[in-house]
Amino acid sequence: MLRIGNAGIPDSTPKQRGIVAGTARAAEVGFGVMELEFVHSIYMTPDLARQVGEVAKKNNLALTLHAPFYINLNSLEPAKRHASMERILKSAKIGAMAGVKSVTFHAAYYMKQDKEEVYQTVKAALQKIQAELKRDNIKIQISPELTGKHTAFGDLDELLRLAKEIGTGFCIDFAHLHARSNGKFNSQRDFDKIFERVVKVLGKDALKELHMHVSGINYSEKGERNHLMLQNSDFNIKAFVSSLKAHKVGGYLICESPNPEADALYIQSLF
Fold this sequence. Notes:
Layout: E1 2-7, H1 18-28, E2 33-37, H2 46-58, E3 62-66, H3 78-97, E4 102-105, H4 115-135, E5 141-144, H5 156-166, E6 171-173, H6 174-180, H7 188-202, E7 210-214, E8 216-220, E9 223-228, H8 237-246, E10 251-255, H9 260-269
Parallel strand pairs: 1-2, 1-10, 2-3, 3-4, 4-5, 6-7, 7-10
Antiparallel strand pairs: 8-9
């Protein structure tokens, strides 16, 4: 089953109503998932997280979560690496209280270092995070995101390798993938190749519960610049949806357009 929804609370949520009302509104407009946005701060208390989780469960709404932007597991400064791990852990622990299925984040930057060395550094940090969550009996998927710039760790092969070697989840951001290829990655066959690659590395079951992002996007030869509405972008959303259907992809598809509610509803109309 593929659940479609928006990042953050829907724009149509009445002003001043907050995250609990926004969660109910996401279900009301017909979404199957909503992504909690901790991108600027981890603003939820445990009590608030539980309230959100109760509303989501009551309305059969799945939840995913985006951890803060301020993460670099490959920082040259040990204090910043530690703070990055703590932000992921805190996001995961609060998210788990709300029943979040998967927490995603931009894991690291290469910092002009050898990519294999960076991979091993990120892998070691994620293993420590996994160990602490396991120790505390917290069940949530840790899912580094496919990033939109060549300077950022997180291409598809790196994410799949982590999943195979240490059992992390991953979030495929198809807008980032489009930007990372300077717009060349945009046909149904291109999207098919991604799902085929996932199956080759992890098996068919991996397509049953993917965490994905999509939106329009502005980019250059260096990669992502900013997100756009789908209608203002050259991202081929119809080809993407056709590929999702062909491969019977399940899981969570989160729209990150500037008005994610509007574009998520449009995507739903294509099914």
